[in-house]
Amino acid sequence: MPVGDTSLPQTIYSIQGVKLGITEASVRYKNRRDLLVIELAPVVQTAVVTTQNAFAAAPVQIVREHIQSDDPIRYLVVNTGNANAATGDDGYPREPNVCKALAEKTKTNISQILPYSTGVIGETLNSDAIVSGLDDCLENLQADNWQEAAHAICTTDTIPKVASTQIEIDGETYTITGIAKGAGMIRPNMATMLGFVATDANIAPELLQSMLKDLVNLSFNRITVDGDTSTNDCCTLMATGQTLNKPLINSTQHPHYHALFDALEKIFVRLATLIVRDGEGATKFITVAVTGGKDTQECCDVAYAIAHSPLVKTAFFASDPNWGRIVAAVGYAGVPDLDANKVSVKLDNVAICTRGQLDADYTEAKGQAVMTRPEITIHIDLGRGKASDTVYTCDLSHDYVTINADYRS
Amino acid sequence: MPVGDTSLPQTIYSIQGVKLGITEASVRYKNRRDLLVIELAPVVQTAVVTTQNAFAAAPVQIVREHIQSDDPIRYLVVNTGNANAATGDDGYPREPNVCKALAEKTKTNISQILPYSTGVIGETLNSDAIVSGLDDCLENLQADNWQEAAHAICTTDTIPKVASTQIEIDGETYTITGIAKGAGMIRPNMATMLGFVATDANIAPELLQSMLKDLVNLSFNRITVDGDTSTNDCCTLMATGQTLNKPLINSTQHPHYHALFDALEKIFVRLATLIVRDGEGATKFITVAVTGGKDTQECCDVAYAIAHSPLVKTAFFASDPNWGRIVAAVGYAGVPDLDANKVSVKLDNVAICTRGQLDADYTEAKGQAVMTRPEITIHIDLGRGKASDTVYTCDLSHDYVTINADYRS
């Protein structure tokens, strides 16, 4: 069961210039939507960040190649059921075959197509099934298919992940809609399992890429379920505004830039935290907020040490305010010359450890009361500087073990 | 249930110059041996390595201080039930109080005493209970108490951990006996939860310290249960041979050095792997052997990435040859410029992934057959050099979650 508010947006806004088509292609399982094609209008700017895993899957390698091309991206094709990762020389041609078939059907160049795969690692991709499903997807293309698309990219996800917003900046209306998938093998490094966000803003290509990098570092790169970085992480940001009479945003100095970035950040953080809320076996949604560091990196290191600790995660599953495990994780996070006697820990608003020792006002009852909440923030003050960072994670439950002792796709 | 052979040695040899006394001091629980005093003869060489955790417990800080003293160490005092860690200004004086009481009773200096604590973090140490138990321990001192001592230092351990051997080098007989404790919060960094090894060899102090460092890096620093580095790790090596007419070993060139080191290494690795075999909830004992690296560090990084991956560990719990999770962990281990197409993976003698893709002869049945074994070696060949390293770990089971969702001591 996902944790807390994982509801769909009240309104899922379409993005002019973006259409989505879905089908059941039986890539691995029958009777399951497992193929998505996203069609972009001819002049859409697209930016991508991909996994840093050395076993980057064949589709990831092709995405990296195609995004370099001068031709604008026209189609994204996404399958679930098989990640086409660690498939070596056999895996590589299978995605180009899919791209080639789609290029022929749509009269585009193969380099205008970005392929994405997610599912089991190390098995041969059934690219014939994907090719057979393309016609269905193309016939089915609609601007209001975002929710269906979010379903089609799920694997162990128990909920579709959609975020959507509309804002007005200086009389100009901007729309942003995105979907994501992921529940396990989640500690994205430069991107998440799969995230697709589109806006009708008109953003210059270089700026779009740098915005995506910044946005991912505030969202998908700050979540962890199990510390496992996937071979297939990809996050894609599309901006369709060039032919929509939207003002060109081509620098961070543009008067619309900051408000638009903030709106995008909210969408990215919502999608990223939806992944954590749907983390495999999650019963608690945990925010680890670290302040008082010398730099962001050491705050991030401390936050991840806590977020990855199986002992911390099982204590949260048990609603046990076992704060010794939290400070132990702070202590081994590798912060140079950390003075334990300056470190303070709060759970939500309850001070537990103040400057290295039990807070004078702390009682087990107070700690217990916080720990029973489904959403908890661990506040760590390192007491040595002004930097801060935040990571989102979930607990480690019996269901995590059950799911991953069974899952093979 | 611990995994595989966790039997006690056929013979537990006493070490001349070492006596051990045990009692029930009710530090946290009643009716449980929880206090150990080790008495060393006046001229014993002692070397210690301690945790790198920034929240190093009060006893660890005192051990570091006392070991610097010129006076030879005469007593070690070890309690379970409470780690006296993250106890700030309150915790520090409590261990000196114990040392002071023991020094008075034994007419030694306080700096000749090393204190060790293990158990719950962040609670006030009941040092009065420890002091009250000292007389019992001193009355009870015996050379053949190693097995009782191994019981007395257990917390969540389900088995006492003892290793003992006797070897002859050039007509000289050397004896080595050691005990260790630990089952959770196990990813030692420079030492393990608690390990005590004694030999009757006569080893010069500087050499003893450097041997201990090397031995720990081959044993306790190569195990992980959950990746959590404890606040209280300490490993102590004692050499009693100076007054026993044993030849002085004062350099690595000494003709006895290598054979003695090998014998010590076997004892250290046995104690370290006993901790993994008794890992919380463990059902499988897993050796991760990485070869073909450019240097030892990258082999170690890859081995630990695999050994810490919850997805790999749950797959082993399920006896599921889900090797995609193994290569994903290799891929995110941070090895610079790793070529996935040179990486090979074997489970015991079954080749699964050869140079980046499924081995031609692999069948699911072969993988399944290996995975049902209680002891499995994951062989990774990085295909880029001659360095190697090995890490020992266990799987992640429902019982791990159960134990750590309950444990508070």
Describe the protein's architecture and organization.
2 copies of one chain form a homodimer. By secondary structure, chain A is α/β, with parallel strands linked by helices. Chain A folds into 2 domains: 260 residues, L-amino peptidase D-ALA esterase/amidase (4-Layer Sandwich), CATH 3.60.70; 122 residues, ArgJ beta chain, C-terminal domain (Ubiquitin-like (UB roll), Roll). Helices cover 31% and strands 26% of the residues of chain A. The first copy, chain A, has 12 helices and 18 strands. In chain A, β6 and β7 form a beta hairpin. In chain A, α3 packs parallel to α4 and α8 crosses α10. The longest helix of chain A has 21 residues. The first copy, chain A, is globular, with a radius of gyration of 22 Å. The model of chain A has no long low-confidence stretch (mean pLDDT 89).
